[in-house]
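Structure, all two chains, one model.
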Amino acid sequence: MSKSKLWNVVGTSVHKVDGAALAAGAPLFVDDELPRDLLFAAVKWSPHAHARITSMDTSRAEAMDGVHVVLTYKNVPRVMRTTAGQGHPEPSPYDFTTLDSKVRHVGDRVAAVAAETPALARAAVEAIEVEYELLEPVLEIRSALEKGAPVIHDELDAAMPIVAPYEPGRNLAAHVAVAVGDPPAALSKAHQRVTAEYECHYAQHCPMEPHIAVAAPDGYGRLIIRTSTQVPFHVRRIVAQACQIPVRDIRVIKPRIGGGFGAKQEVLIEDLVALLALRSGRPVKLEYTRAEEFTSARTRHPAVVTVDLGLSAEGDVEGMDMKVLLNTGAYGSHALTVGCNCGSKVLPLYKCDHVGFALDSVYTNLPVGGAYRGYGATQAAFAMECAMDEAAAKLGMDPVELRQRNTIGPGDSSPIFKALGEGTEGVEQAIGSCGLAECIARGAQAMDWSAKRQRRDEGRLRRGVGMCTLMQGSSIPEVDLGAASIKLNEDGSFNLLVGATDLGTGSDTVMAQIAAEVLGVTPDRILVLSSDTDVTPFDVGAYASSTTYLSGMAAKKAAAGARRQILEVAARLLDVPAGDLSLAEGMVKGGPRPLSLADVALSSLYAEHQHQVQSVASHVTQKSPPPFSAHFAEVEVDTATGMVRVLKYVAAVDCGTAINPLLAEGQVEGAVLNGIGYALTEEYLFDRRGKMRNPTFKHYKVLCTADLPELVTILVPSYEATGPFGAKSVSEIGINGPLPAINNAIFHATGARLRRSPFTPERVLAALE
Amino acid sequence: MPDGAPATIEVDIIINGKAQTFRVDPAEVALDTLRDAGLASVKRGCDEGDCGSCSILVDGQLMRACLLYTGQLHGREITTVEGLGTARQPHPIQRAFVEAGAVQCGYCTPGMVLATSALLDSCPSPTDEQIRQGLDGNLCRCTGYVKIVDAVRQAAAELRSGRDRSGGDR
């Protein structure tokens, strides 16, 4: 930790800049600040998994007193697009329009209304009469590509906006196949072969704040949208597209956000409030219910992942092949990129010259997949890390030793970095910082791995330990842009405006720390504003583990620009060369007399050479340096009931420099507990017609304090030369570990290998038999 | 109801020490009334009593505002976090949440703070197990609860020492 001594603010767990206001319950969220004359929106949802609307009668709804607008496919522009909040052009199929004459899953949109009260809006939705022609649904991922399967996107105008395979006529939303070296040859001549198929399931992000957006026409004819989003700039662009109005007519404001985890990387409801506000001339609010979050927001794409490993007798990985069948549900949101990430964020972890990867993302008439923390790496790490555990068992090796032998290290590269990017080719890179070896060593020690690995229980309750290793990325190289601007105020404080989107992670605090470090002030002198498309510079938004690494560098560059200007002003005032001066403790140091930042500001604003000290900077990266992690789980399996209890969980993570260690730990802990819930309890249950049977927290079990195991987080320091003060990402990687680590621990405890998640008592019992 | 106009009822509630009178539909739930009254800390997370985001203290008891009719609060004393402290002058529990890193998105935080207050009222020196049981009706998706448990421990210690300093009235 000697690096932290180099800095005053970076590497310190300063309090979250918005923490005190949030703990005081201040009105900081979308629903806390509503305009006057607000109308309330409600959406009519499809009760059918697959159907064509044959008639729709809205006359009763429209005649209701206090109902202002009823939107159907007949009166909104048909603009094929995606709801995926990605950069332009989005690498997701344009298979969605605001309202369509066909419905493709239970919970798909049918109509939307705006009315004087929420109750009236709901009543109006009920009063809309719809007749459907029922179509046969596709409810099983493996049957989607079968010849003769019902075609879900039979509309003629669905298309892929980038050059990539797209065959909606056979329910194929995305397809990728790459190979480096000669994987079949390497696999066939390997001493030991493991072929394993693992299937993981639907899950929802469950941010405590459901999706909510308010659109309000302002006096100038523009539309102001306050929304709970991770991607304000993409919201602006995609709403403009949906409503067929110019980008300049829309302003998107992101206040405090009640959690996102990828759910809010979707332009999910802003199009509806925008259209309803434009038609009614009144502000309109739409807020999802918890049930709607489950059925009509986005989910983790379920996947069937097959891994084929070839190893030498000594345990060297000589060939790898991964085949992913990804269920994107009714629309192809992130279908290509989540699929690509299955390979690109998992395969490079192991040194190997012969690697194959293939993806089929398929449409089904089930809930829509989307961005979810982990973003494909979760699904694929489950298969890969369990297959590695199988390989270790076959070779009679300790799983830790197998990882130590094969994992990538500093200076290494992987051919997959170049072969596989975001739907297209990737970017070649060599690993800079890598603390994985230390993560493995310290994690194993914290778990008391060697001793616990020896244990063999014979009774009803059996304990076991399992582990896995992980990597992710930090931003999308040569794609993502982050920008920031900063200006000096009269009291020596600064306004830091960032497009980077704090969704509760603490990124505003991290940005403040980075700028404060450069400017030699305490973080409370940095007033961070995120994000407002009229005010803050562009940023792609909070996704792809990019904010600290990418946007943090933009903040650092902007602060450095302001620092240069301050030193120039100070040099004139003190009559010394700027090169002799520096900034620390809110003062200009190195001159003949004390000079504060306030003195500099007052001089530059009111006295000589008057100008605003202000700087703006952009940042794009050439690399996506992976954070690395090793996870260790200890479980107790009740062999009579099949109940699995996690007793202890250790996550050791290398995120480069932790700008704020307490916040970094919080990211790991939150991700890990979410992952444990995904592994054990969280599950969509469907009826035979594709309707989710359990869209409530009563029946979709999110873990609470009573379920908390002993959870140990170890931050392993490294220094990533391309990141701000050595930082890499930390937010996503932690969620990828629990599925494989717990499954491997169950295997160690019982000898039973589960191939489908979640590991419910029923599945565990079945595996034990 | 004739002419579709529902009868309203008058409800007197003391909110954070201030007496207020509401005229509401008998079917109105407290979550809506309190939010309409400007109490932004009472958050809507599920409307079904499952998440605890709308927790309030009713005569010192932790309850969910989404499961209460406003009429049930007649004559009761309500506490929300607005009544505990402000950003500039936080209550020790609020301060502990910030210092321990227990606040991420902050949406569940008001409910967690009130659950902590109710717990520490009845159990000033809770074990970790008691903390986990005491807060298990409040969901948080950001933190993994580790730092929330830390915060409760820290708040308990601070409140105990505060009471010691003030002569130990408990």
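Chain A touches chain B through 56 residues (CB under 8 Å).
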